[in-house]
DNA sequence: GCAAGCTCTAAGCGCTTGCTCACCTTCGGG
DNA sequence: CCCGAAGGTGAGCAAGCGCTTAGAGCTTGC
């Protein structure tokens, strides 16, 4: 199954959250009103506050679930079988595909961090640190095995993640490329970045 | 000279614009109030409306000037002397350096497009199209000259620009790397992406 | 030496915001 | 058949929003 927001119950809370993701992605957190969210979910503005204490809690739930998913994708690739090159290919391919396919969610997850409360942001930043660690581990493995030539592992880790994340900003579902095609292109480009020359 | 916002006069209008850049970068366009902008500039809220018709006009001025600068950087590199590899190195190096050094401005320029009016956004999108064309030209030249191996020129152009632009999101002036160091790292990574293997 | 014009402020208007509250409905268990 | 809990609504509050207006102060041209 793996239905996008299946873990959110009851049904009304899920509908509100899906509506919030759409609204936040389209107009940004601060430009979205609680009336807009409730309206998209077919409910009155007051209904929102039965399931969520504040508008910020809604953003936090979205951000938390999204970052959990992103981290799982990268960790699965990092801990999987195969050479470092194969694992890096898989990591980039699946991470990019997620950012393209679910670009609505990803946009909220990646670009609305600043709207979180201090406490919630700290929690999310820790998840991002672990995503960074997963990619760095693959690069380090590849260098150790002599597969990769990477003079600056932390910097290259940052660049790889940055490249993938920015897909959420520009990807357009009506555009020319499918998520799979972008994933393939990006996996190829990233492998070239880390592979020994000549 | 090349003082950042030297083209904006009179002085009061410049001070308001600089204050707006800071505020928009920190909190986002929609979360920034006209009172906050005026306060940072040491003026009353009403003073803003002597120099700008609306808050959106302020954003448009910022976005326009910033995109002009970004386009100039890329066009200068594309039309400069040297091999395609040298020009691409220069383009990435200077474009990344600008996004790092002026990350406050770049953040507004790159991430607040959606807050512009339909008309203003159309104007800005055209400037971005020309930035894309400048990079694509370098890649095409390199392929024609046999310097580069790039199976998908439009896709790789997109990836290169995307990588550079995302610097504005993560770059931290208090961080470990200087703008020059990031520029050098990124120029190296991008050259690896386009250079023939083996 | 003073009218004209520009810059700026204090006050505030009309509206929207996030959120609350009194009340209504639905429904399973004794 | 009634009861209390849970999920929902319409109306509306206090605060904050973008922006306007009346008028004060300073500079300038003749």
State the distance separating the first and last CA atoms of chain A: 45 Å
Please provide the ordered H/E string of secondary-structure elements of chain A.
HHHHHHHHHH
Largest binding interface between chains? A-B, 32 and 32 residues
Which residues of chain A form runs of ≥5 with pLDDT under 50?
Answer: none
Number of strands of chain A: 0
Describe this structure in words.
The structure is a homodimer of 198-residue chains. Chain A is mainly alpha-helical and 198 residues long. Chain A has two domains: 1-52, Orthogonal Bundle (Arc Repressor Mutant, subunit A), CATH 1.10.10.60; 55-194, Tetracycline Repressor, domain 2. Helices cover 71% and strands 0% of the residues of chain A. The first copy, chain A, contains ten helices and no strands. Chain A has helices spanning 11-27, 34-40, 48-51, 55-79, 84-101, 103-111, 118-144, 153-165, 167-170, 179-194. The radius of gyration of chain A is 18 Å and the shape is elongated. The termini of chain A are far apart. The A-B interface holds A 27-28, 30-31, 111, 114-115, 151-152, 155-156, 158-159, 162-163, 165-167, 169-170, 177, 182, 185-186, 188-189, 192-195, 197-198 and B 27-28, 30-31, 111, 114-115, 151-152, 155-156, 158-159, 162-163, 165-167, 169-170, 177, 182, 185-186, 188-189, 192-195, 197-198. The structure holds a DNA duplex (30 and 30 nucleotides).
Give a summary of the structure in a few sentences.
Chain A is mainly α and 198 residues long. Chain A is 71% helix and 0% strand. The model of chain A has no long low-confidence stretch (mean pLDDT 94).
